[in-house]
Specification:
Largest sheet: 32 strands, mixed
Shape: elongated
Helix content: under 10%
Number of helices: 6
Distance between the termini: 166 Å
Number of strands: 67
């Protein structure tokens, strides 16, 4: 018995070994052979999609392999070995399907074989094109599913509430399916039922719900991304106890408000994104407890106050972005401990003071942006070791001093922006050629452009405009800048020498602005033959062009030069063409009408002559501005305009045009400015213009219009009109009371709620002439709050209508040199914004209303040559007007006249009130002469009346009018 025991043990061992081997063999086979039904379902799934290769930036950013996985699925082979398929090691059931980045294109229908895998535990269909598919009920059948990723696959429509039945889900990612959305209860059900979630990413899914408080009680939660989900309401103010939380992303929920979240001290948060939300308040000192934080993004929120010093505890942080908030105070000197920082963005806040010197310790810094603040002082000079710094933006601050030498020695610098500061001194020499963009514009730099800039072979953009740079630029210096596409050296004192071989330089240049420099002579630098689309040489002394070889020119601005000879013809591609203020002569060639893309055509202030081509009104459906003023054109105005045209401004002022105003203008529904002044146009008042809904400026002065203005059949004509100049014509009859009652644009304007802007586009603003006391004032820009009416020098008669007093937003009123009678209307006291009033040379009688002293903005008054009597009102603005304002009113008495009144009761307020003008005009004054022999030319540039009474203007006008009167008196005595 004992002797057989070893044998039995041996046999038992063999038996066990056989079973083990058999089991092992079976186990091995199960990893090779999946059930036939599953293989068939996978092949049917493959056939339901087409393969379309597409590129996504995410592939590159996240280093994701992208290829057609299903292409390698072959019938007859083991599906468990197919790419993207994983099976259970025992049963052979498919438990994981990863078809992400597989170029799949098609629709997942509710009967798709995708839903025939009940044992699936992981499903990843991310980064495909399932456009037209919804997250349907089929996805709710995977009861064993723990990981579901459908991100970036163009799912749309309602997300099935059955997805909330996947109670075993640990990770759910539906992000970047921007046209998908949860129902009202679908999201709540998901949050309540999926209690095991560690990762919930719904970026871009429309939820339109308040933030679910219950999510903050999920201690298992590691990653939460609800960015761009339409969340609203207030984020919970209670403490957040999520010890495992590493990511919280609420980016882009603009209606979600709250204070900075209150995190418990034991939190492991790594990335926090609250950008583009409505979070507000100050950053708490407890932010220093987030010691694992690597990314903090608070862009475009409503945070304010100073940055807490506890920020220095965030020693792991690599990206700090506080752009576009309301932070103020000094930037704390906390960077000694933040040596892992790679990205530091504090732009568009209200930071003041100096740049902290500890910034020099950020040796890993790659991108630094402190732009759009109020930082002052010099940039710290003792900074070393910025070997990785590639982007520096300190623009739009108050920084001064010289540019420190270390900025010229950064080996990796790609972009440098120090624009809109107060830097002085010379530009230094750059030591490395890595730079691609330089912007030092709007400073006080002087000297020449350093030669090293012309060695920067990678440079694509160079902006040095609005400094005091000088010297002679030789075009040959640009030879190495073959990648330069943007060049702006405008508003300096540079001159240019063009070499014979300069045409081959800057082959890729697209934008060139050399305006406001000292460039003269014939232009021969024809760079960028096929690429240049924007060339601005305005305000120089260029006298001509050797040739114009450009094939892609869109914006050509040559105004204010010394161009002579015939008008150059713009290319068909050109949409902005300005040659104003030159010495061009000859006629306009009909070839100009081939420029069918033209939007702005400005030929003003030249010596052009001849008749206007008939096609000028209809050669471009995009034409917005046609400015031909101050030339010598004759003949008639073009009679035809395109239906649906875009014409906004027609300015034919100061030519010799005749005929009548073309009725075809009635189809110019976009017309805002019509200036036909100073021509020989005749006919009666074009009342039909009152139907133009956007007409704001109408100038018909100094023509041959005649007759009664009369009535209009249009209900509420000229509703948008706010600048009217009909002076120096032959209109007669009563003043047009009906039109005054219809000028809604001059009534009850709440200027506090109006955005002040100029008539025109970004690159072009309209101008006009306004006459005050014989002075021609050129508004080089027309502010949208400026209003004026000039009906002077006609034959109007009768009384001044009381309804003019309803135009309480009026700035200027000139009814002089007519045959008006009666009293000055008492309603004029309502013209609270009036700055200029001229009623001279009429037959007005009675007293000057004492109530006019309430017009505290009034700076110009002319009541001369009437029949006014009685006291001159005293106080306020009337204390500033001289004798000239009342000349030849023999019945007037009191200050400033020498004639005393017969009563001692002269009203005189105890103090004068200085008016504050709010008109905000840009003025360019030219005194064109008034009376005998007075011709005074003054160029006073562009001034903006934003505050304070324009005393200088009053002084100039009154002084010169006084000289005129004295001179006339002397002539009379002789």
């Amino acid at each position: 018995m004992m002797s057989t025991l070893p044998l039995l043990c041996f046999l038992f061992f063999l038996s066990c070994s056989h079973l083990l081997l058999s089991s092992s063999f079976s186990f091995s086979n199960s990893t090779k052979i999946c059930p036939h039904g599953q293989a068939l379902a996978l092949l049917q799934l493959k056939k339901s999609f087409s393969i379309k290769k597409f590129y996504s930036e995410y592939f590159e950013f996240y280093h994701l392999p992208s290829y057609p996985k299903t292409e390698y699925w072959k019938e007859g082979s083991d599906c468990c070995s197919w790419d993207g398929v994983s099976c259970d090691l025992v049963t052979g059931h498919v438990i994981e399907l990863d078809l992400s980045c597989s170029w799949l294109s098609g629709t997942i229908h509710s009967n798709s074989t995708l839903f025939r895998f009940p044992h699936l535990q992981r499903l990843n269909l991310a980064f495909n094109n399932f456009s037209g598919s919804s997250v349907s009920t089929g996805f709710g059948r995977f009861s064993s599913l723990t990981h579901l990723n459908l991100s970036n696959s163009l799912f749309l429509g309602l997300i099935s509430p059955e997805i909330s039945h996947l109670s075993n889900l640990v990770s759910l990612d539906l992000s970047w399916n921007d046209e998908a959305e949860f129902s009202l209860l679908g999201f709540d059900s998901l949050v309540q039922n999926l209690t095991k979630l560690q990762k919930l990413h719904l970026r871009g899914i429309s939820i339109s719900s308040v933030f679910p408080n219950s999510l903050l009680n999920r201690s298992s939660l590691i990653s939460l991304d609800l960015s761009f989900c339409g969340l609203y309401g207030r984020f919970p103010d209670n403490d957040i106890h999520l010890p495992k939380l590493e990511l919280l992303d609420l980016w882009g929920n603009s209606n979600l408000s709250g204070n900075f979240p209150r995190f418990s001290e034991n939190i492991s948060l790594i990335d926090l994104y609250l950008s583009f939300t409505n979070f507000s308040g100050e950053l708490p000192a407890s932010i220093g407890n987030l010691k694992s934080l690597q990314t903090l993004s608070l862009v475009d929120c409503q945070f304010l106050g100073s940055i807490p010093a506890s920020l220095e505890n965030l020693t792991q942080i690599t990206s700090l972005n506080l752009n576009d908030n309301h932070f103020s105070g000094k930037i704390p000197n906390v960077f000694d401990n933040l040596r892992n920082l790679i990205f530091l963005f504090l732009s568009e806040n209200n930071f003041s003071g100096q740049i902290p010197p500890s910034i020099g310790n950020l040796t890993n810094l790659y991108d630094l942006d402190f732009s759009y603040n109020q930082l002052e002082g010099a940039i710290p000079s003792s900074i070393y070791g910025f070997s990785r710094l590639s982007f520096v933006d300190l623009g739009y601050n108050l920084l001064n001093g010289t540019i420190p030498s270390w900025l010229y020695t950064l080996p990796s610098l790609v972009e440098l922006d120090l624009s809109h500061n107060k830097f002085t001194g010379h530009i230094g020499e750059f030591q490395f050629d890595s730079l691609e963009k330089i912007d030092l514009s709007m400073n006080e730099l002087h000297g020449s452009i350093p030669t090293s800039i012309f060695e920067l072979v990678n440079l694509s953009s160079l902006k040095l405009f609005s400094n005091n740079l000088s010297g002679v630029l030789e075009t040959s210096k640009f030879e190495k800048l073959i990648n330069l596409t943007y060049l702006d050296l405008s508003n300096n004192v540079l001159s240019l020498t063009m070499s014979v071989h300069s045409n081959s330089m800057l082959p890729n240049i697209a934008f060139v602005d050399l305006s406001n420099n000292n460039i003269s002579g014939i232009w021969t630098w024809n760079m960028g033959k096929y690429t240049l689309y924007h060339l601005n040489l305005s305000n120089n002394s260029v006298s001509g062009f050797e040739m114009q070889p450009w094939k892609s020119m869109q914006i050509l601005d040559l105004h204010s030069n010394l161009l002579q000879g015939p008008l150059p013809t713009p290319l068909n591609s050109t949409y902005f063409f300005s040659v104003s203020h030159n010495k061009l002569s000859g006629e306009i060639s009909p070839l100009i009408c081939k420029a069918s893309s033209m939007e702005i055509l400005d030929l003003s202030y030249n010596n052009l002559s001849g008749m206007l081509p008939h096609c000028l009104g209809n050669f471009s459906e995009d034409l917005s501005v046609l400015n031909l003023q101050r030339n010598q054109f004759h003949g008639i105005i073009p009679q035809t305009f395109l239906n649906g045209n875009s014409i906004r401004t027609l300015d034919f002022n100061s030519n010799q045009l005749e005929g009548m105003v073309p009725r075809s203008l009635i189809i110019c529904k976009e017309l805002e400015v019509l200036d036909l002044g100073n021509n020989k146009i005749n006919g009666t008042f074009p009342h039909w213009l009152g139907a133009l809904p956007k007409l704001q400026v109408l100038v018909l002065r100094s023509n041959r219009f005649h007759g009664h203005i009369g009535f209009s059949k249009i209900i509420s004509p000229f509703m948008s009109l706010r600048i009217i100049d009909l002076a120096h014509n032959d209109f007669k009859g009563d003043l047009p009371e009906m039109y005054f009652k219809s000028l809604k644009a001059i009534m009850n304007i709440d200027e506090g709620n109006i955005t002040r802007e100029y008539i025109g586009e970004y690159y072009y603003q309209d101008s006009m002439m306004v006459t005050i006391k014989g002075l021609d004032l050129e508004f080089v820009k027309i502010l949208n709050t400026f209003t004026t009416i000039d009906l002077s020098s006609n034959r109007f008669q009768g009384k001044i209508p009381e309804c003019i007093g309803n135009l309480n937003s009026l700035r200027g009123l000139n009814l002089s040199h007519n045959d008006l009678r009666g009293h000055i209307p008492l309603s004029f006291r309502n013209l609270k914004l009036l700055e200029s009033l001229d009623l001279s040379s009429n037959k007005l009688s009675g007293q000057i209303p004492q109530e006019l002293t309430s017009l505290t903005f009034l700076s110009v008054l002319n009541l001369s040559q009437n029949h006014l009597t009685g006291f001159i009102p005293q106080g306020y603005q009337f204390g500033t007007f001289g004798n000239d304002s009342y000349f030849k009113n023999t019945g007037l008495c009191g200050f400033p006249l020498s004639k005393r009144c017969t009563t001692d009761e002269i009203p005189y307020p105890s103090q004068e009130i200085e008016a504050k003008s709010e008109s905000g005009f840009d003025w360019k004054i030219t005194l064109m002469g008034y009376g005998c022999g007075l011709v005074i030319g003054l160029s006073l540039g562009c001034l903006i009346f934003l505050s304070g009474k324009p005393k200088w203007l009053v002084w100039i006008i009154d002084k010169n009018i006084h000289k005129k009167i004295v001179r006339n008196k002397r002539s009379t005595c002789r």
